[in-house]
């Protein structure tokens, strides 16, 4: 009995340090990256707050206007803005933005997710 309690105490920190084995909700897929609706909402909120305050982050000054050169048929009207969504689940705070973006409009409505993965040059393709 004492052995089992000691084993549990030794194993607990190791188990807590391991990534969750529970699969993530995959409401959106950008290349090999999976995002839950809550992760998308958090990224959108961060991007919109920066837009509303007139602030930007990173070398590319996110959020910035997204011109939709690819001609996506978004479900909300423009003007559109893009903000990085990170595969780590963390909120973008500057630096390398990765390939994936959340796109929202000036009314803070989600337009969609897009990615550079699978696109030619600096273009985007739609996430699913």
From TrEMBL:
Residues 1-17 form the signal peptide. The keyword Lyase applies. One of its GO terms (molecular function) is hydrolase activity. It catalyses: [RNA] containing guanosine + H2O = an [RNA fragment]-3'-guanosine-3'-phosphate + a 5'-hydroxy-ribonucleotide-3'-[RNA fragment]. Pfam families: Ribonuclease (PF00545). It is an enzyme of class 4 (lyase). The keyword Nuclease applies. Keywords: Disulfide bond, Endonuclease, Hydrolase, Lyase, Nuclease, Signal. Its EC number is 4.6.1.24. Belongs to the ribonuclease N1/T1 family. This is ribonuclease T1. It comes from Aspergillus coremiiformis.
